[in-house]
Design brief:
The protein has five helices and six strands. It has about 190 residues and is α+β, with helices and mostly antiparallel strands.
C-alpha cells in the first residue's frame, strides 16, 4: 500500500467527520433560542394528502419580526393541519391562524428553560464529539490492520495515526465552537 492510499483514508475520515459536524449543526439549529428562526420548525411534520410531510414542504416560512414566524400554506385547506402539527410538536409554541397564514409567536425564554435548553445543547455536542471519536477509532483500527498485514510500515502507521488525530482535533474543536455559540445565544437575554 502506498501513501496515496493513506490519503484516501484521510479524505474518507474527514468526510465522515464533516457529516457529524453537519448533524450537530442541524440538531443545534432545532434548539430554540429567544429569537425566531424557521429552523426550529424543521422537525414538524404535517398530516397532508394522506401522509406526514415536513412543514417546509407544505408552507412557505418567513420571519417578519424577531419574535414571530409566519407559515403560509401552499394549499389553504392545510391551515388547521399546520396549526395542529405545530401545537403538538413539543416545541412550546402556540400558533394562531387568521384564515390565510399561521402566525407563530416565539415566547421569551425563562431562565429555567434556558438552562434546560443549554443541557440539550451540551448533550447534542457530546454526541457529536463521540461520533467523531468513533470515526477516529474506525480509522485507527484500519491502520493497525494494515500494519499487521505488512501493507504499511510502522513509520507510516505512526504518521497516519497522528494525521487522523489532527483531523479529529479539528472536528472536535468545531463542535466545541458550535456549542459555545449556541450557549451564548441561549443565555443572552
Amino acid at each position: 500500500m502506498d501513501v496515496s492510499d493513506l490519503k484516501g483514508l484521510f479524505v474518507e475520515v474527514k468526510k465522515r467527520m464533516d457529516v457529524q459536524i453537519d448533524h450537530v449543526r442541524r440538531e443545534l439549529g432545532g434548539v430554540r433560542t429567544g429569537r425566531a428562526s424557521v429552523t426550529i420548525l424543521d422537525t414538524v411534520h404535517v398530516e397532508a394528502y394522506g401522509s406526514q410531510m415536513p412543514l417546509n414542504q407544505v408552507a412557505s416560512m418567513s420571519v417578519p419580526e424577531p419574535q414571530m414566524i409566519l407559515a403560509q400554506p401552499f394549499d389553504p385547506s392545510l391551515l388547521s393541519a399546520i396549526e395542529k402539527a405545530i401545537r403538538t410538536s413539543n416545541l412550546g409554541l402556540n400558533p394562531t391562524n387568521d384564515g390565510k397564514v399561521v402566525r407563530i409567536p416565539i415566547p421569551a425564554l425563562t431562565e429555567e428553560r434556558r438552562k434546560e435548553l443549554s443541557k440539550i445543547v451540551h448533550k447534542y455536542a457530546e454526541e457529536g464529539r463521540n461520533n467523531v471519536r468513533q470515526v477516529r477509532r474506525d480509522a485507527n483500527d484500519k491502520l493497525k490492520k494494515l500494519l499487521k498485514d505488512h501493507q504499511i510500515s510502522e513509520d507510516d502507521e505512526r504518521r497516519s495515526l497522528d494525521e487522523v488525530q489532527k483531523i479529529t482535533d479539528q472536528h472536535v474543536h468545531l463542535i466545541d465552537e458550535l456549542q459555545k455559540k449556541k450557549d451564548t445565544e441561549l443565555l443572552a437575554k
